[in-house]
Design a protein that fits this description.
The structure holds three protein chains of three kinds. By secondary structure, chain B is α+β, with helices and mostly antiparallel strands. Chain C is an alpha+beta fold. Chain C starts with a strand and ends with a helix. A five-stranded mixed beta sheet of chain C has the order 2-1-5-3-4, with helices on both faces. A four-stranded antiparallel beta sheet of chain C has the order 8-9-10-11. A two-stranded antiparallel ribbon of chain C has the order 6-7. The interface between A and B is large, with 57 and 42 residues.
Chain lengths: 642, 150, 237
């Protein structure tokens, strides 16, 4: 049905509420990429089969990512009269059992994750309450969602709907307040008012650069020309960052609504969403969402009878990190290679096909409906003085709780790593947290009390970036980390600028020399000089920020570089060429496992049997390629790595 | 590849030269790589110079000019997987298959590629074979994984 | 005409012009490799860096791409600029140690040592050959391929450049002179693109003056009669 006025939206809201909170028990399975990669599809199938088989009156639904990716597959059960219950690490077998027991009105307390009694509808400043007077036995010991350390300090604005709606059902998005803000914006607000609100909110771009969004919109609006474009950068290329993917897979309409509001404010009638090729599920979800929005008249001609027309095109990337750069992204849409161009004239004046264009990141667009709905005043109270609002981060690496989190700006890194992340596993020591992806840097322990804020992170040699946060412990070698990033960047550079192409190549070359025991004392200052020219002389932000991983690791871990160079030692035991694998002859049980797995047949000895005494095994250093297979195979800790 | 099939793809995108990337991706979906003849045909049909098409085909990671093996293995070397030892998994695969990244085995069974971050960081190190994700990998699990694919 | 200053000296440039054009015209020597007046500015080599002060803020940028704007202050010889240019030429020298032009420029800038492992490439990836072939000649025979440290200037599929008309424009425009052309008997070869074409003979003077393939292309495009090119340019005038 076509939505022609607010009343129509209300009707759809009612329908959506019916599927969100049905009268019968509803079981939802998290089916974003993280869920699917742990087998959520098999869990869903198992649940469906069991519900059919037992002829139970239950609804089985799909939803997005609730953030605690490590505990996937996550299944939640909502039975009227009981709190909503979430289960973790559910297998198809456990799922069948859940269905069976809930079908028999049993409350299952195994595999419990947490319970919920109300849902925050942050866009509308209210809660959807399903609290009960008496918590059923078996659930009273279960923590509430807000009590779980991982979730306790989070504030979900961008992730408001992820894990709570089926992204393929526009009705559910509308039920939770979606598109009502669009209605108000198009029918009751003027474009200048909207821009004023976005400016007053202090929202800064969530893609990495952190430009004031309102100012960007204003410049674009004021640019000369009748034809303008709005674009969404969904080319999330930072390895380790998947915030945008989760939003697109779990709540695609939030981005669409944001873009329509933005297009109206700027005066654009056509938009593009540029999605990275490596995100097939996100592309699928967007295609469905756009189609539904078109069907309902929320995209197309004369939206909601406002006279404003807007359509969105989906563009699939080709696998190039550099296409996340605004001018490269536009070149790609135009049918060229993703080579950036000089931005002496900004894209807001002359961008896609030389027309004024406004490009924003997925998370930025997603925040817009909430800012317009709750107001700039409310939004600007969250965060720090210069960094307003919340930010989604992916916390991964050597940390206990890995997943996607959303926190108010100003929270400290220590709170993120220890309170939310649960600290470092296996009792190891924290070493650094890498933020900002390949454009960012490593932050050491001494700076853990730094508040997360655009400017503070840049001051210490890193940057906010898109939100990837990689935690490292003492088994991570910082020289290796710098080398890893340079390897990535030299291949992803478009190659146009001498400074970027040769700079990243030579930095990688020197880092390789250092990690292979051929480091020279002058290499550190050479890296610093190369870093300087790569950043200063290159055309775009890829080259401009490429040296950050190298320069920040030299800044905070210089001693590690010196160990590699002067003592030919890798303290973290990562750089293969500097390692020596040795079998401790007094610990060796002569089982022979190591010799069996050695690919170079470098281990010799004699297996101990009932008849023979056996000879302790020895590694031939000349043949050893330091692959580590023997170390992994030995069950007696008889192999030492130096 | 039949000319009519390519014509169909070109028509699907409104014959716009700006859609060249999508057109090449669709051809690649059909053929598993970009045959030289197909590119020459597109160049002639859409009046885009062959040098431009070759430039685009070699610029984007998603496009391949070399025929791929029956099974495609993508080893994730995103930062999280790297920190969890992704390189070791790659090394083991290279040794087992006798190829380097980007190459196809002599028996054309496997093509080994790299990917930077699929977003399953909690499961690292990760490898994907024909779209199926294998998480929590270790060097000693590699051989049995390969045996699953004939 | 738009007024601004270069190193304190007042200059003028026309709307749409670039700093490098104005500087060269005014006799200010800014080193450059990938700039050529016959094609659009590209900004690949990064040698023409200058510092530009606008609205009180200074940034380092390539003078070949930066537009002429009123009241800007351009500085062509600051310490920052010189340091950057020296590193760029050192990187180019490490890449193409055999190129005489690069050696000369390095000497001029006071760069006498290369602190990196020398490669043995000759092409500096300035792109002039492809840009001229595309923008001026219209043959589009060659272009960049691959990405990052694997970037190269090649003919499609790394074979013979089948659209090349052997006009020799790329030979002339290459700043490091690594594209060679040779003529032997009735054949002309552009060696780098593996392109050998048979030449047409003038009916009047008997000289081999241009490749058949090239002349056919011109005839087609301009819809000229079949015998139009039977007489060479010299004999015609």
């Amino acid at each position: 049905m076509k939505i022609l006025k607010k009343g129509d939206l209300e009707k759809i809201r009612e329908a959506g509420l019916q599927t969100l909170f049905p009268k019968e028990t509803k079981i939802s399975v998290g089916m974003a990429t993280c869920g699917l990669s742990t087998g959520a599809d098999r869990v869903y199938e198992a649940i469906q089969k069991e519900v059919e088989r037992s002829k139970l009156r239950m609804h089985v639904a799909k939803t997005g990512c609730i953030g605690f990716c490590q505990r996937e597959p996550v299944v939640d059960i909502l039975e009227p009269g009981k709190p909503r219950v979430f289960y973790q690490e559910v297998t198809p077998e456990k799922a069948v059992e859940l269905v069976r027991r809930w079908g028999e009105s049993q409350v299952v307390s195994d595999w419990l994750f947490f319970k919920m009694e109300k849902e925050d509808w942050i866009g509308e400043d209210r809660f959807y309450d399903y609290s009960v007077r008496q918590i059923p036995k078996g659930l009273d010991g279960t923590p509430h969602y807000h009590q779980i350390p991982f979730y306790n300090k989070q504030l979900k604005v961008a992730l408001r709907n992820c894990g709570f709606i089926n992204p393929d059902h526009i009705e559910e998005y509308i039920a939770r307040g979606g598109y009502f803000t669009l209605c108000r914006a198009l029918l009751e607000m003027k474009p200048e008012e909207i821009i004023g609100e976005v400016k007053a909110s202090g929202l800064r771009g969530r893609g990495g650069a952190g430009f004031l969004t309102g100012n960007k919109w204003e410049t674009c609006r004021k640019s000369k020309g009748d034809r303008k474009y709005v674009l969404c950068n969904a080319d999330e290329g930072d390895p380790g960052a998947y915030m945008d993917r989760s939003v697109l897979e779990g709540d695609p309409h939030s981005v669409i609504e944001g873009m329509i509001i933005g297009a109206y404010a700027i005066g654009a009638h056509e938009g593009f969403i540029y999605v990275r090729d490596e995100y097939p599920l996100a592309i699928q979800k967007l295609q469905t969402a756009i189609r539904q929005a078109v069907e309902m008249g929320l995209l197309g001609e004369d939206i909601l009878g406002s006279g404003f027309s807007f359509r969105i095109n989906l563009f699939r990337g080709g696998g190039a990190f550099v296409c996340g750069e605004s001018t490269a992204l536009m070149a790609s849409i135009e049918g060229n290679v993703g080579e950036p161009r000089a931005k002496h004239i900004h894209t807001t004046e002359s961008g896609l096909w030389d027309k004024p264009s406004n490009l924003n990141n997925v998370e930025t667009w997603n925040n817009i409906p909430v800012i317009i709905s709750r107001g700039a005043d409310w939004y600007s109270k969250i965060g720090t003085e210069k960094s307003k609002g919340t930010k989604v981060f992916s916390i991964v690496g050597k940390v206990n709780n890995t997943g996607l989190i959303e926190v108010p700006m100003g929270i400290t890194l220590r709170e993120i790593v220890y309170d939310i992340g649960g600290g470092i596993p296996e009792g190891k020591k924290f070493k650094a947290v890498q933020t900002g992806g390949p454009s960012g840097g490593c932050i050491p322990e001494s700076l853990l009390d730094l508040p997360v804020d655009f400017d503070r992170l840049t001051e210490v040699g890193s940057m906010m970036g898109s939100g990837g946060m990689i935690v490292m412990d003492d088994s991570t070698c910082m020289v290796d980390v710098a080398k890893y990033f340079m390897d990535f960047l030299k291949g992803e550079s478009c190659g146009k600028c001498t400074s970027c192409r040769e700079g990243t190549k030579r930095m990688h070359e020197i880092l390789t020399e250092i990690s292979e025991g051929r480091g020279k004392p002058e290499h550190i200052s050479l890296l610093e000089e190369l870093g300087w020219v790569t950043a200063e002389a290159s055309l775009c932000a890829l080259g401009g920020t490429a040296p950050n991983p190298v320069l920040s690791t030299i800044r905070y871990f210089r001693h590690e570089y010196e160990e590699h160079i002067l003592n030919k030692r890798c303290p973290a035991k990562v750089c293969r060429a500097l390692l020596k694998y040795r079998i401790l002859s007094d610990v060796c049980t002569m089982c022979g496992r190591c010799a069996k797995v050695c690919p170079e047949k470098a281990i010799s000895g004699k297996t101990k049997t009932k008849k023979e005494k056996g000879i302790p095994f020895r590694i031939d250093e000349q043949k050893c390629i330091q692959c580590g297979m023997c170390f992994e195979a030995c069950k007696f800790k008889a192999i030492e790595v130096q | 590849m039949e000319a009519s099939k390519i014509d169909g793809i070109i028509r699907k995108y409104g014959e716009k030269s700006s859609a060249i990337l999508a057109i090449l991706q669709d051809i690649q979906s059909e053929e598993k790589y970009l045959p030289k003849e197909a590119l020459e045909y597109v160049s002639q049909k859409m009046q885009i110079s062959l040098s431009s098409i070759f430039r685009i085909a070699t610029f984007y990671n998603a496009l391949s000019l070399k025929p791929r093996g029956k099974h495609k293995i993508d080893v994730c070397l995103g930062t999280a997987c790297h920190v969890r030892g992704g390189e070791k998994i790659l090394g083991k695969l290279e040794r087992e298959l006798g190829v380097s990244v980007g190459e196809t085995t002599k028996d054309k069974r496997f093509t080994l590629e790299l990917v930077r971050c699929l977003g399953c960081c909690s499961l690292g190190p990760v490898a994907v074979v024909d779209g199926k994700v294998f998480g929590r990998l270790a060097q000693d699990k590699v051989s049995s994984l390969l045996k699953e694919y004939k | 005409m738009i007024p601004f200053t270069i190193d304190g000296k007042p200059v003028e440039g026309k709307e749409g012009g670039t700093l490098l054009e104005v500087a060269l015209e005014a006799g200010v020597d800014i080193p450059h490799l990938c700039y050529n007046e016959s094609v659009k500015p590209y900004g690949a080599c990064r040698l023409c860096l200058v510092e530009v002060e606008r609205h009180g803020r200074r940034r380092m940028t390539t003078s070949c791409t930066y537009p002429v704007l009123e009241g800007i202050k351009v500085f062509t010889g600051t310490e920052k600029v010189l340091r950057a240019r020296r590193m760029i030429i050192e990187l180019l020298l490490a890449m193409c140690p055999g190129d005489k032009k690069i050696q000369e420029m390095a000497r001029e800038m006071g760069v006498d040592e290369v602190r990196f492992k020398k490669e043995d490439k000759d092409c500096i990836l300035c792109g002039l050959c492809a840009r001229v072939c595309e923008e001026v000649v219209g043959a589009n025979a060659i272009h960049f391929a691959f990405r990052g440290d694997r970037r190269e200037m090649v003919a499609p599929f790394l074979g013979e450049a089948m659209n090349c008309i052997a006009c020799g424009a790329c030979v002339v425009v290459c700043p490091v002179d690594v594209i060679k052309m040779k003529e032997e008997g009735d054949e002309r070869t552009i060696l780098r693109w593996k392109r050998t074409l048979k030449m047409k003979q003038c009916k009047v003077c008997g000289n081999y003056f241009a490749p058949w393939f090239q002349l056919e292309k011109f005839r087609e495009k301009a819809r000229l009669p079949k015998d139009f090119y039977d007489v060479c340019y010299t004999c015609r005038s």
